[in-house]
């Protein structure tokens, strides 16, 4: 993967901090200039496991009309460490030159479509500038998350000093491919109360676990159970686009899951686990036995204490239906957001062009103070205020007042009364592990499941991952931490699957997070918990900055706005095991 949890001997490294608009870009050349700024970085870990065919020359083509061939540049147009986006007529490709060799693959990250030419090229892989996914330049394989799909690769040859690419037209259009997966070899009766693997949850940890098992050759039964009504979908988009549908958010279709023999049971809530009989009991009375169990139930809203909890139009954003209802009810009405979590703030931003008024209530002095620091929090707060959002900080809700059961007012502990037609509570979350009581699984005082570095719990055959776990984090001397990032859940899912198959390997990644508000994106990499200082470069007032979070003179995390691909660059450095000192960024 794109990083390393093991901690080699520290190597100090300087981080290039030039603003990207000052970097000269010619004919789509990579902004990382003539060579990778991370010449000493190690190749990402061995997460990619494509088939043998992935890295071997493609076979002769029997249907030439399905392919396009084009001369894209002179052999001297690219120097080592450079990338260029090139047009083949039927689509575009990313041309890469490293160690004197040319390679070509899809030019868009399959996750959200980011232009990879603006990413970071370092020893055999390209890291996405938006969310940090990594792709092997020889095979196109996804080597670090987020995302599910890999990239197509294309044949490259040099003739008479011309670089020629030959590519499948369909691959040029799709810009993605799935890794080969095995099928279930057992004859399965869907009513059978036994599955070799049961996965509880359908988020990224659950889905990646199931897909990794199939990619690694697992041929027994896999059953994935979820409380949700829908096949796996991208929950991170709910708070950013409230009108979006489950279909638009979908990560995998039912057809895809069926084609790869991943059984999905929707609206199935697990209520108990018996580790002695290796069984899971569901709310509807169904009981299933397992050989291996993966728990990835995610989080649930943090309980709050206030009067009037029974009034209508008060939401915790959990589903597409919740999002759609919030958008509909807030139209030209008064919206109140309780909490300044990333979800709460994203909802507030999304409602500014719909609602008559948007008010945000927070217990801190500024939003994101604990995660991003006071200076960055103030700058983001100003962005919201400029878009008409009113803040009531250092405050809490005392009561929700309704008329005929319908929300009308939110009363604060300060005595302030806010008009409210719809309220969204975004005050954080807690792990959804209540059903594990009496199970024998070790759950800490906050409700998190304790796992080791391979996602194994204290019970043989039971694994867990995603938001529900605390796991050993080597950069903090294996302190047990909880990192509830979408990207990290993918990593956990893969690690658990490999562990189930007896192929356990240490997780190698750098935590990566993002949030979008008013068309601007905050990118964040690393683990900044407990930072003691923030070094800021750029202009906070213009929201064009990079913030380095330091702890004991060492950079432990980085955040940016309008400063790509600096966060992916820093992730690459941290992921290679190097240390960035505070003095290097001051």
Automatic annotation (TrEMBL):
One of its GO terms (cellular component) is mitochondrion. Keywords: FAD, Flavoprotein, Oxidoreductase. Signal peptide: none annotated. One of its GO terms (biological process) is execution phase of apoptosis. It comes from the Eukaryota. One of its GO terms (molecular function) is oxidoreductase activity, acting on NAD(P)H. Residues 70-165 form the Rieske domain. Pfam families: Pyr_redox_2, Reductase_C, Rieske. This is Apoptosis-inducing factor 3 isoform X1. It comes from Solea senegalensis (Senegalese sole).
